[in-house]
Design goal:
By secondary structure, this protein is of the alpha+beta class. The chain is 15% helix and 31% strand. A hairpin with a 4-residue loop joins strand 6 (65-71) and strand 7.
Length: 192
């Protein structure tokens, strides 16, 4: 994350433009970004979030991972499993359209794979930028979901908002996230 989740405005090779409501400086944009991430038994959840860009998650190894996807337009909730058992309905890639909410969990009960992690690749196009990203906060989300059943399914994945009095609920100070060395070490120890 050398650009800390921003496009990197000073890169002269950026040629793609992408209209964003929070566009602050230059409309140029990475065409695609890609990361690996590793949910573990100690850190098994993917917090509810939404991104303006489409993205694809790829299975690279370890235990399967169950995605819960929510389409706000149709208000339909669906589950897909990213994993190795194609016969059981697992998929090697899960596509998440832009503006769809996603969350998920490591399927730790899947005993046929002894690992305590999954290795997941994620490609985002147009490229990831924190300006297009939002975490799910329950108070915010109850305004857009009419189904109690959907809310109950998503409740374990809401961001526990430490800034209850903050007007920008669901926003995270990602500069703090990357700059605070002590918190980085705590997160690493908690996941190990």
């Amino acid at each position: 994350m050398t650009t800390r989740g921003q496009t990197g405005w000073t890169d002269p090779n950026l040629v793609m433009t992408y209209d964003r409501p929070n566009q602050q400086e230059d409309p140029r944009r990475h065409a695609l970004t890609s990361i690996f991430w590793i949910p573990t038994v100690k850190s098994p959840k993917l917090i509810l979030s939404v991104n303006k860009s489409d993205h694809v998650h790829y299975y690279h190894g370890g235990k399967p991972f169950e995605y819960t996807l929510y389409n706000p337009e149709t208000q339909i909730l669906e589950k897909q499993i990213l994993g190795p058992d194609i016969v059981a309905g697992h998929k090697l890639q899960v596509v998440v359209p832009g503006e769809w909410w996603k969350c998920g969990r490591l399927l730790v009960e899947f005993d046929r794979i002894p690992h305590d992690y999954a290795i997941i690749g994620e490609a985002v196009g147009p490229g990831f930028d924190f300006n297009d990203f939002r975490l799910g906060v329950e108070e915010d989300f109850t305004k857009i979901v009419s189904s109690i059943e959907v809310l109950e399914t998503l409740r374990p994945y809401f961001l526990e908002n430490p800034h209850k009095d903050n007007k920008d609920e669901g926003k995270t100070d990602f500069d703090d996230y990357y700059d605070d060395q002590e918190k980085q070490q705590e997160r690493t120890q908690a996941r190990s």
